[in-house]
Design brief:
Its cofactor is pyridoxal 5'-phosphate. The protein is about 45% helix and about 15% strand. With about 475 residues, it is of the alpha/beta class. The longest helix has 19 residues. It is globular and about 60 Å long. The structure holds pyridoxal-5'-phosphate and the ligand N[C@@H](CCOP(=O)(O)O)C(=O)O.
Amino acid sequence: MKYISTRGEAPTLGFCDALLAGLASDGGLYVPKEWPSFSKKQIRAMRGMTYQQVAFTVLSPFVNGEIDDKTLKAMIDEAYGTFRHPAVAPLVQTGPDAFILELFHGTTLAFKDVAMQLLARLMDHVLAERGQRATIVGATSGDTGGAAIDAFAGRERTDIFILFPHEKVSPVQQRQMTTSSAANVHAIAVKGNFDDCQNLVKAMFNDMGFREKMQLSGVNSINWARIMAQIVYYFTSAVALGGPDRKISFTVPTGNFGDIFAGFVAKRMGLPVDRLVIATNDNDILARTLKTGRYEMRGVVATTSPSMDIQISSNFERLLFEAYGREPAAIRTLMEGLKQSGAFEIEEKALKAIRKEFRAGRATQKQVAKTITETLEKTGYLLDPHTATGVFVAAKNARPASPMVTLATAHPAKFPAAVKSASGIDPALPSWLADMMQREERFEILDPELATVEAFVGQHSRIRG
Ligand SMILES: Cc1ncc(COP(=O)(O)O)c(C=O)c1O
Ligand SMILES: N[C@@H](CCOP(=O)(O)O)C(=O)O
């Protein structure tokens, strides 16, 4: 399997090189040259497999033998051995056809752990084999940062720098990033929003001198391996509900479009998926885009689901690439428009292709709070605000007698203020995080300027700038 850039001007890479590259050198995102596919018989054979076995089956075609099977299996076992639920990603039924896919049983209580625990092991392995080191830079609206720091803390071959929006993440999210005692971990509070953080990370990658000198690598979902690992739970959950012999719908709380893009890939790989529903909060750029065909940035508003307070939805570029028939020139034009004017129009044919695959809806903060209250009253299930966004939108897009799975992307204890105000319940942190709010914090506050951030990374990475 080879990997190509959505902008068509970066070298084609194998799996291990794409893994270390993160962003392509032309500013695009790597995608597999073709989608591997499974027959119904092969998908049926996943019934009764463990999560780890399905992961190996689904990921193997992407890794393509660049890591031997025994080593890959061991990494998968170790990564998912860190999860606190034996099923890794269990399903909970909350209505006759309504299901919640719990993706928060990892160490930092968000779906990011699913991919990040594997990514850290994959990177470590490839760097060790090559005798290389890497400087990892990442942007977070709250969850990716904690998951990445947990997965990479103390690793000998990597230094990790996580940029988060100052005073715009929940206290639990912040402390998951700022209380690590590992010397290779650096949390940076940027005076700006998540889009500023993400733009700074992309700008560091696009500064070729800095990129090469620091041997930059990325752990955001711009890195193909993140998406790859997230495809697995679409297969495990669909198969548990009778797939591939009936179609399952999924609603995904969406920000950077990585998680739902993984669902799109699962469908491309042969999984019978009925509806794929994008759920946004008040930062509804994706819902507006599907309705109007115009991707248009507006100011980010702070909501009770801060991890989805995003306007520049990176992985939408991967979808555009598919919708435009994998034509990189078209993607270059669209992305140039976004850079110049903060907007672009999607041509009719591509928009039709997107609308064929996706639906979208938005939940206001009031609707999110009401969904938390009512779901608790009706089912006894306590939702976090991101998942509640999904549950609200799922209800509007469900079909009678057809299973709808909403992805539960975070544990309610990560967002206690919003959860308590809607439900009256103060969700407790699990035992391993119980002293989190008492731990000492260590982080740097920086202006959102490329030179400032590069100088900080250059001074503190063990690969000296
Ligand atoms: C809790 C939570 N839910 C949903 C999302 C949205 O996921 P994605 O960015 O993959 O669309 C994020 C982060 O992006 C998140 O942290
Ligand atoms: N919500 C995310 C934003 C970054 O998303 P990623 O999936 O591209 O890493 C976060 O929690 O940081």
